[in-house]
Specification:
Number of strands: 12
Strand order of the largest sheet: 3-2-1-4-5-6-10
Distance between the termini: 54 Å
Strand content: 15-25%
Helix content: 40-55%
Shape: globular
Bound molecules: nicotinamide-adenine-dinucleotide, 2'deoxy-thymidine-5'-diphospho-alpha-D-glucose
Largest sheet: 7 strands, parallel
Structural class: alpha/beta
């Protein structure tokens, strides 16, 4: 069956993998990728599908309601998969309002535009909101986030994503708009902007720069290969129960220090350096303000109801990721020139 699907944020890290999957897997769908191309958006991420006959790129900002209304009126989308967001916790600490504008107002604008063009007829329509496990706050040493864990966001980024989740549910409840929400743990893989831990450290190891570990390095994250997240989004978009929430995660917890040591060991091998060389770059720096101690997702609902499970082990996914960065040095050089240098100086010096 043919569908018109709008994917927002498809020039970013996760969005680019979702757009590629949908364009390739569903040749009868028309896939629209709406992205403002902020510092995190990069058309290079999806250049391989740029000329596909079922694909259209639209440059535009979800903060602009008039633009969105016109776009939705013109195309009458059947589905929206919403990933566009400000996504980096450290940036949210420096400039919280930017996160309110895109993540809260921008999401509300999309919901309004979708509701208005559907005009009360939501048959075969769906708004899919892609969210994060950070809305649940921070865990102690034990326990997992389930779909019923109470929201307790701790950073401006997490609070803005929590607010956007609430808006989506409010539209579902108030206007009967069909929706699904997924809350995913930390992703890693190709096209990840090198402000986040794994790509930043790969780039620094390659360039023999110090590896800035926040605080004691004992913070824990649950890591998922980005292509597995894209597969989960495909499954939930097509088979998820309307009005439901699905947690997505790899059952793959690592303290930052253990992860960094694994990364250093794999990099030593791939770069032909003697064992332990990259780990010498580890430097302890001032902690992130309000740093969440531990995230861990219980993804058993998604497994039981829709049969999803991750396809690679962390060691395999990490090795693939390193290989991608080493083979795409030009991509890295392009995104780390210009404004990135200024960001890095302010953040780490
Ligand atoms: P990203 O920062 O790599 O990409 C965000 C994309 O959104 C960019 O292409 C950017 O240009 C675009 N964008 C930003 N503001 C926009 C605006 N106002 N209008 C239109 N486009 C705009 O982010 P990501 O890591 O790929 O995350 C994508 C989504 O997944 C986000 O909603 C994020 O909260 C969520 N998420 C991310 C992770 C993760 O580990 N990265 C985990 C769980 C959930
Ligand atoms: O959990 C899902 C979230 O994961 C997503 O919603 C966010 O968009 C995504 O950015 C990510 O958030 P984190 O804050 O967990 O990711 P980040 O890569 O920034 O940091 C991972 C851990 O590494 C965290 O404990 C902070 C630490 N860290 C990070 C950086 C950038 C360092 O020790 N040093 C660093 O330089």
């Amino acid at each position: 069956m043919s569908k018109k699907v709008l994917i927002t944020g498809g020039a970013g890290f996760i969005g680019s993998h979702v757009v590629r999957l949908f364009v390739k897997k569903y040749p009868t769908y028309r896939i629209f990728n709406l992205d403002a191309l902020t510092y995190a958006g990069n058309l290079e991420n999806i250049k391989d599908i740029a000329d596909a006959p079922n694909y259209t790129f639209v440059k535009g900002n979800i903060k602009d309601i008039n633009f969105l209304n016109a776009l939705f009126q013109e195309h009458q989308f059947d589905g929206v998969i919403h990933l566009a967001a400000e996504s980096h916790v450290d940036r949210s600490i420096k400039d919280p309002n930017a996160f309110i504008e895109t993540n809260v107002i921008g999401t509300s604008n999309l919901l309004n535009a979708f509701r208005d063009t559907c005009n009360g007829n939501f048959e075969n329509k769906l708004f899919y909101h892609v969210s994060t496990d950070e809305v649940y706050g921070s865990l102690g040493k034990t326990g997992l986030f389930t779909e019923t864990t109470a929201y307790d966001p701790q950073s401006p980024y997490a609070a803005s994503k929590a607010a956007s989740d609430h808006m989506v549910r409010a539209f579902g409840n108030t206007y009967d708009m069909p929706f699904v929400i997924s809350n995913c743990s930390n992703n890693y893989g190709a096209n990840h902007f090198p402000e986040k831990l794994i790509p930043l450290f790969i780039n620094n190891i390659k360039n023999n720069k110090s590896l800035p570990v926040y605080g004691d390095g004992q913070y824990t994250r649950d890591w998922l290969f980005v292509e597995d997240h894209a597969q989960a989004i495909d499954l939930i978009f097509h088979e998820g129960k309307k009005g439901d929430t699905y947690n997505i995660g790899g059952f793959n917890e690592w303290t930052n220090l253990d992860l960094i040591h694994l990364l250093c060991a794999q990099m030593d091998e791939k770069l032909g350096r003697s064992k332990g060389t990259s780990a010498e770059l580890i430097t302890y720096v001032k902690d992130r303000a309000g740093h969440d101690r531990r995230y861990a997702i219980d993804a058993s609902k998604l497994n039981k109801e829709l049969g999803w499970k991750p396809s690679v082990t962390f060691e395999e996914g990490l090795a693939k990721t390193i290989d991608w960065y080493l083979a795409n040095q030009e991509w890295l050089q392009n995104v780390t020139s210009g404004a990135y240098k200024e960001y890095y100086e302010k953040m780490y010096n």
